[in-house]
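Okay, any thoughts on this one?
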Amino acid sequence: MLNIRSTWEKNRGGFTLIELLIVVAIIGIISAIALPNLLNAIDKSKQKRTMSDLRTIGTAVEAYGTDTACYPFAIADWASLRPILSPFFIKQPPDGDGWSNTWDASTTASGSNYTLASYGKDGTLSARPGGQTSDFNCDILFTHGQFYQWPEGSQS
């Protein structure tokens, strides 16, 4: 009987189909759990990068305001504001947010106020009630040296 068992053990050289299916199922379950968390972390990092870039550009606008006693006059978009700031107040400002959407920038005709914004993940203008937001698609607004609308907590 000992010879039969040792012969059977020698002939068994690989995995059965059931064993392989179980391993594939386990890997699939782990991936299904980890993938949404990974995508959320990637969007959260893009959001944090966007906020950092907005703060940096806002600091450059504030420096311009300190030097000239007012903000730029009647700016309607980022393409008009960028050459005023670069290279004197910020060497190379980023042209887009974390999702590669162009910034929204505007100033009043009197140069008394400015607003910098990212349209968020979806890249479209949304309602701007101010305060904390709970969605990656919500706009992020920076004005007068602080965030007017910003992401907070878990995003969906």
In short: Helices lie at 2-11, 17-68, 78-85. The first helix runs from residue 2 to 11. The chain has a mean pLDDT of 87.
